[in-house]
DNA sequence: CAGCGTATTCAACGGTTGTTGAATTTGCAA
DNA sequence: TTGCAAATTCAACAACCGTTGAATACGCTG
């Protein structure tokens, strides 16, 4: 059920990550988590304290790594672009590809982790409590870069476009397999390369349309 | 807390709708719902049976009305367009505007209902169980229409673009107020007209970019 | 092997959950 | 008013929840 050689503390995080991503915070029991980790119930409390602290520990385990990967991708494309700055597509690519890479790792934990991010980002309850603490600084950096690539954009238009990007990304991270059913098997949620290969030009075209000079809405 | 003149059965649905939208299925107690409705716990079971049946009753109450409104909007723009068929923007408008209209009603129940739709659409657990039953027929009609407006589009590209549209819409329906914080008050989640006025050209440009003739990804 | 701190389990607690059957109230027809 | 069915409440059930303190096992240093 779970790799019995890993340290128990990690196994609890793994199990919590997966189950929280699938059923949400209230849909999962500490006893379910413990059973999946092959561990006694009380051990979760011993290592993490209250249930809510375990929930947050799951986020913090991978947050720094993920933010660094995305920030480095942005800085790299900025460095390569030089004076003129990177193109819209390059910025969006820097924002999205690190996620695809993480999802395609052998470590399935990343898939669960990003599905969990999708869960809180879409939740009116958790979203305000957790998203800004985790991602605000990084997102503002990207919006800054997008503004330079679209010099005529109004500030508010950039934020609305970012919300559209964030929503499209969130649904892909959630891995609901809805597109599998809808397309009759023609598209598969698990085909992440196809997902991002379609998302990047889609989103870039949207930004350009809405944020180009003197665009009338 | 809740309009005491409405029939109790409706008040239970109202309370369930609002609380489920905010906290999800497992995050809400039948006792919380009953208290909010000003009613005894057992009454929910009397009217709806198990908790899961109440959950589904919430969806079915407004599903037919919503699907009819969107289908009529599509048929209307198809009728007006005549031979050539409606433009991409007109189809997307028919898909989205009925939602904006519902959200802007005095009836706040619609806002909660659509936030609940966002919750299940983004959930790996509920999505497959509920979305296709509720919306598949309607969505296929829209994809059909989109395919006619983009005659060179490959079938799979249409579905991937629809997923991007669905994601952007879902995050807006969820009403998480994240954009309010992120933009420092410049944009407000509650400003639905601004949300849809930005979403429609954004999405239309994305479809065109990805689905136009011989586009290379 | 002794000793000691950490990791893990055991057993139990008070509180809450969904659900139910019986009792009570309500609304309306005869 | 009586009678009867639908609506609503009351009281209680077994099951499960998160959490805790004490007891046990483990892993290391001396």
TrEMBL record, chains A, B:
It holds the Pfam family TetR_N. Gene3D superfamilies: Tetracycline Repressor, domain 2. InterPro entries: Homeodomain-like_sf, HTH-type_TetR-like_transc_reg, HTH_TetR, PsrA_TetR_C, Tet_transcr_reg_TetR-rel_C_sf. Residues 6-66 form the HTH tetR-type domain. GO terms for molecular function: DNA-binding transcription factor activity; transcription cis-regulatory region binding. Residues 29-48 bind DNA. The keyword Transcription applies. Keywords: DNA-binding, Transcription, Transcription regulation. PANTHER family: HTH-TYPE TRANSCRIPTIONAL REGULATOR BETI, HTH-TYPE TRANSCRIPTIONAL REGULATOR RUTR. This is Transcriptional regulator, TetR family.
């Amino acid at each position: 059920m779970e790799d019995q050689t890993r340290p128990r503390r990690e196994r609890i995080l793994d199990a919590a990550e997966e189950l929280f991503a699938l059923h949400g915070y209230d849909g999962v029991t500490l006893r379910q988590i413990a059973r999946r980790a092959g561990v006694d119930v009380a051990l979760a409390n011993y290592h993490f304290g209250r249930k809510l602290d375990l929930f947050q520990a799951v986020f913090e385990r991978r947050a720094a790594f993920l933010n660094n990967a995305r920030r480095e991708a942005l800085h790299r494309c900025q460095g390569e672009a030089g004076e003129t700055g990177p193109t819209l597509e390059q910025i969006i690519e820097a924002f999205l590809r690190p996620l695809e890479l993480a999802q395609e790792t052998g470590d399935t934990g990343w898939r669960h982790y990003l599905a969990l991010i999708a869960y809180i980002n879409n939740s009116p309850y958790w979203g305000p409590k957790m998203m800004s603490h985790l991602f605000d600084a990084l997102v503002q950096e990207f919006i800054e870069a997008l503004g330079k690539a679209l010099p005529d954009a109004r500030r508010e238009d950039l934020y609305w476009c970012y919300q559209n990007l964030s929503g499209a990304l969130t649904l892909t991270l959630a891995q609901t397999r809805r597109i599998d059913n809808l397309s009759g098997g023609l598209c598969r949620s698990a085909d992440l390369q196809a997902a991002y290969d379609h998302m990047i030009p889609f989103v870039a075209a949207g930004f350009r349309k809405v944020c180009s000079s003197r665009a009338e809405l």
